[in-house]
Amino acid sequence: MNGLGAWAVFQVIFFYCRSWFDGLTTNGEGLTTNGKGLTTNGKGLTTNGKGLTTNGEGLTTSGRAHHKRGARTTS
């Protein structure tokens, strides 16, 4: 095995070990999470696990404008 091949194998092993211990996962399609609520679907949709989101088109929300506490409806 040449040096480049050995480096590639090391990188793969290191990536999987780091993924195992840190909770970082990917399904090969850009879906990632760091195991702490930070996610992205590879298309610009992200959330930090605390309600902050963006759809990758400039639309952002803090996750607070859509959740009014104490709001009630009556029939």
In brief:
The chain has one helix at 3-22; strands at residues 25-26, 32-33, 39-40, 46-47, 53-54, 60-61.
Task: Please describe the structure with a list of short key phrases separated by commas or semicolons.
alpha+beta; 75 residues; elongated; 6 strands; 6-stranded antiparallel beta sheet
Compute the separation of the termini in Å: 74 Å
The proportion of residues forming helix, as a percent range, comes to: 25-40%
Provide the low-confidence segments as ranges: none
Q: What percentage of the residues does DSSP assign to strands (E)?
A: 15-25%
Task: Describe the overall structure.
With 75 residues, this protein is α+β, with helices and mostly antiparallel strands. The chain has one domain (3-61). It has one helix and six strands; from the N terminus they run αββββββ. The chain has one helix spanning 3-22, and strands at 25-26, 32-33, 39-40, 46-47, 53-54, 60-61. It has a six-stranded antiparallel sheet with strand order 1-2-3-4-5-6, with no helix packed on it. A hairpin with a 5-residue loop joins β5 and β6. The chain is elongated. The N and C termini lie far apart (74 Å). The relative contact order is 0.09. The model has no long low-confidence stretch (mean pLDDT 55).
